[in-house]
């Protein structure tokens, strides 16, 4: 009967997180060839999850039914300490991926891991003192005066997740906002389930789900982006026009890089690729919130703006011209307001026609050089 109870507890603790990890490992292996950079960001999370499962099993079952004294007490404390540490590092690993995508700061990832590193250092004294937690002679846990320090830092990470969700909202990334908000909400629910009802293994499963949800979202997003320029591709443009074209789109822009053929013929296609990447970076840097940039052809780009006024779009267009010029290239931009009396094809043709008129005018005035720098 004891063995059956132990087996039941082991299955209850490990079944969901282990199955999720197996699924994620299988998915990562299939997609590694196509999404190496994305896969590399999540492989450490799998290693940490497996380590956390081992530590939690060690903590929960190795000594719970034993009288723990001396060196066994230190091992028991070490397992619990590593469990706290790894939970926070896992949260940091998930948030760091989002921070790297959403925050324009080279140190954003470092700041993300800072609370987890602080927790690792602060918890070291728990090996020898009772200020955080301790184990009684029968193996049950007691809480010291600083017992809630890891939980407070976990709360900070949850706040950070919701801040990132708010940043997604400001940038118009509503799907990513929903994913990050869901991850934060599920983690809070998992923590409360463990804390209030003494349920074991819930939080590990929730963290594993969070990581899987976010990976699958980024995997889907991967196929909406142009492989070279890292901005949205033609398929995403068509899908977003269909999604937002019922009252949300205010303007459509047609954008074309000048003299790409000359650059390719004179300097080679590697230089042509650099020009395309440069203009895409300029478009991203110049975009207003809820204005989305797309590469729709070889040297053809497009943008849709949601709920913008014409002066705002005109100011953004001027910013695009300056950014592209500073990058050493030249482009032409045509803009058309959304008109419910016209089809999308007609509106986009209006923007395209204006772009080509601008391109011809630039060539006639000699203001469309192959390279400025």
Fold topology:
Blueprint: H1 2-31, H2 36-62, H3 71-102, H4 108-122, E1 133-135, E2 141-143, H5 149-171, H6 174-197, H7 202-222, H8 234-244, E3 249-257, H9 260-267, H10 269-286, E4 291-295, E5 300-306, H11 310-327, E6 331-337, H12 344-365
Antiparallel strand pairs: 1-2, 3-5, 3-6, 4-5
Structure write-up:
The protein is an alpha+beta fold. It has two domains: 2-222, Rhopdopsin 7-helix transmembrane proteins (Up-down Bundle); 234-365, Reverse transcriptase/Diguanylate cyclase domain (Alpha-Beta Plaits). Helices cover 67% and strands 9% of the residues. The chain has a four-stranded antiparallel beta sheet with strand order 4-5-3-6, with helices on both faces. Strands 1-2 form a two-stranded antiparallel sheet. Helix 2 packs antiparallel against helix 7 (202-222). It is elongated. The chain starts with a helix and ends in an 8-residue tail after the last helix.
Largest sheet, spatial ordering of strands:
4-5-3-6
- Using DSSP, what is the number of strands? 6
Percentage of β-strand residues: 5-15%
- For the termini, the CA-CA separation is 80 Å
Query: How helix-rich are the residues, as a percent range?
Result: 55-70%
Condensed summary:
The chain is of the alpha+beta class and 373 residues long. It has helices at residues 2-31, 36-62, 71-102, 108-122, 149-171, 174-197, 202-222, 234-244, 260-267, 269-286, 310-327, 344-365, and strands at 133-135, 141-143, 249-257, 291-295, 300-306, 331-337.
């Amino acid at each position: 009967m004891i063995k059956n109870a132990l087996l039941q507890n082991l299955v209850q603790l490990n079944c969901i997180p282990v199955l999720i990890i197996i699924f994620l490992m299988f998915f990562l292996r299939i997609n590694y060839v196509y999404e190496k950079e994305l896969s590399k960001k999540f492989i450490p999370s799998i290693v940490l999850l497996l380590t956390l499962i081992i530590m939690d099993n060690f903590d929960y079952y190795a000594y719970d039914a034993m009288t723990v004294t001396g060196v066994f007490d230190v091992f028991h404390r070490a397992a619990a300490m590593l469990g706290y540490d790894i939970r926070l590092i896992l949260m940091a690993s998930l948030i760091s991926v989002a921070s790297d995508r959403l925050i324009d700061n080279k140190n954003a990832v470092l700041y993300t891991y800072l609370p987890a590193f602080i927790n690792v250092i602060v918890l070291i004294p728990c090996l020898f003192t009772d200020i955080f937690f301790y184990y009684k002679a029968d193996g049950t846990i007691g809480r010291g005066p600083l017992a809630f320090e890891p939980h407070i830092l976990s709360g900070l990470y949850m706040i950070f997740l919701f801040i990132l969700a708010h940043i997604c909202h400001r940038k118009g990334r509503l799907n990513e906002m929903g994913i990050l908000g869901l991850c934060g909400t599920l983690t809070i629910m998992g923590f409360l389930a463990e804390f209030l009802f003494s349920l074991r293994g819930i939080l590990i499963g929730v963290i594993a789900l969070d990581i899987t949800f976010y990976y699958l979202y980024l995997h889907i997003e991967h196929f909406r982006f142009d492989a070279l320029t890292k901005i949205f591709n033609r398929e995403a443009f068509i899908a977003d026009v269909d999604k937002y074209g019922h009252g949300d789109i205010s303007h459509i822009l047609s954008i074309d890089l000048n003299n790409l053929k000359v650059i390719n013929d004179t300097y080679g296609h590697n230089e042509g690729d650099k020009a395309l990447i440069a203009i895409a970076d300029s478009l991203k840097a110049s975009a207003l919130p809820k204005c989305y940039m797309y590469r729709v052809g070889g040297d053809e780009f497009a943008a849709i703006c949601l709920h913008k006024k014409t002066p705002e779009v005109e100011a953004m267009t001027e910013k695009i011209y300056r950014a592209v010029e500073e990058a050493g290239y030249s482009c032409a931009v045509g803009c058309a307001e959304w008109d419910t009396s016209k089809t999308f094809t007609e509106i986009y043709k209006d923007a395209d026609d204006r772009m080509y008129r601008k391109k011809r005018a630039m060539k006639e005035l000699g203001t469309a050089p192959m390279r400025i720098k």
